[in-house]
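Forum: Protein Structure Q&A
Topic: Joint prediction for protein chains with partners

I've read a bunch of threads here and the consensus seems to be that you should model interacting components together rather than docking separate models afterwards. I'd like to see that in practice. Below is the full input, 540 residues plus whatever partners are listed. Could one of the regulars post the assembled result?
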Amino acid sequence: MRVVAKAEWSGEEELPLLRGFVVSSYSPLVAEVASRCLSQCYERPVPPEVGERMAVVLISQGGDVHSAVETASLVDSGQKVSPLLFFQSVPNAIAGHVAKRWGLNGPVVCVSPAGDPEHEAMELAGLLFGDGDADRALVVLVEQATVEGAPDRASALLIEPYGTAGGGKE
Amino acid sequence: MADIAVSGMAAATAYGRGTGALAEHVFAGKPGFSAVHRFDTSLHRAHVAALLPGATTLEAELAEVIDAACSDAGLSTADRAATPLLLAAEREDGRARLPRWGRTPEQTPAGLGATLAEECGLGRLVRAYTTACVSASTAVIDGAAMIASGRAERVVVAGGYLVTRDDFAMFNAGFALSDDGAVRPFSAGRRGLLLGDGVAAVVLERSARRSPRARLTGWGRAGDGYHVCQPHPEGHGMARAIRAALGRAGLEPEDLGYVNAHGTGTSYNDAAEAAALHRAFGLMADKIPVSSTKALHGHVLEASGLVELIVTILALTSGCLPVNAGFTGPDADCALDLVLDQPRQTTHRHALSLNAAFGGANTALVVSQP
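Posted by a regular:
Agreed with the consensus. Here's the joint model:
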């Protein structure tokens, strides 16, 4: 396997807002690094013959902590929960957003890794390719800061098996 | 044909602990919903859920089913120590109420998995799946793929969900909950889903040392690429997952004797799933018996793929197909051969278990008699 494109979020730039997602940096981070990564190889949407078998994989040990904490706070104080918090309550939601935006129809997989996230990215991509359900994988690694003042972290990898034909930007 | 043995299984649901209790009540067709006393529902449009009597904590319930599944498979202490764990679990009220700052890796889904692996004497945690309602089915597929590719000889796949007040509030806010106390999959007048407790585990092996409960002979997964939270209305991703699963199993639609559908009882999900079944099965679509057992044990979210896989195994091995409860009348958008009124007998050897989730994630598992 090879990483054909990689993008990172520096943590110092202003994160673009993402319509339909509120409160938390989690989903905007995923959308931003996914776009930065895929746009190195493809115009949007990717060609159908590529998108048909490109998996979307999200790797995050802690998940969307900010949305969960906000929901718990609203529930505990007896306030109404926004339907938007329901829609973004699982990582699949932003994976679905990326998949629609870029025309990706491969499997959607979200995990909390037991070990090194980049190693996990290659493991999961290898499993998907070997099993035959995908030919390419967009893997997004995202972690919200757990220390006050520390930056959130996000990166995205586009992974292919060796020998995969291009199909992207010339 | 893929051939992975399901050598042990265990479950705890609203019907109590054990697959026997699950089988007894599912085949009786009696919904497991009751008034929620775990938290206050007075501000919500629904007030019932399918709750496990005497439920403790998610960790304790998961440890119990993992232990039971390992015993069911006849695993020794040494066998367990050589067996990795794949976990499907994400939601816990307690975790959402931890301070935002200062969290540790132990306070994550992977942390829960690592604790469980150690507690149950298993080998390493592979990972925790957080893919919403296809978490467990995705973990089963990855476990099967690990065995098929030679990465593992045996895996334990466990998944769990205990209804939380936060989820109840969120599903209420999203108008996803049924307000008439029942789930009516594929029925005219269906009004939404109801949540349920579900904790389950299976042992998957290349070769079982005793007669396996069933065999996993096919699996597939595909995305819709359509919407943040709605399925493709024509069932594109689900149909591709089904075709991939049947292809791997070397089967045709006419070989299937039963489909355990995802069937949440929400308007657009059920119509999309019916469209997917027609797209995948063609002329056989209205000839294969279908039921969603979510009308009985509730929607157990991350654990759905395991609880429903076990229900499918129980149906296939007993030759008794559970009813699609809550049905009040046909919906032209869901023209399927639903199992209505009473369980139906079957002698078929193969069945399909389907799941779908937000983000357009779809999975299909083919289960075959041992």
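The longest helix of chain B spans residues 58-72.
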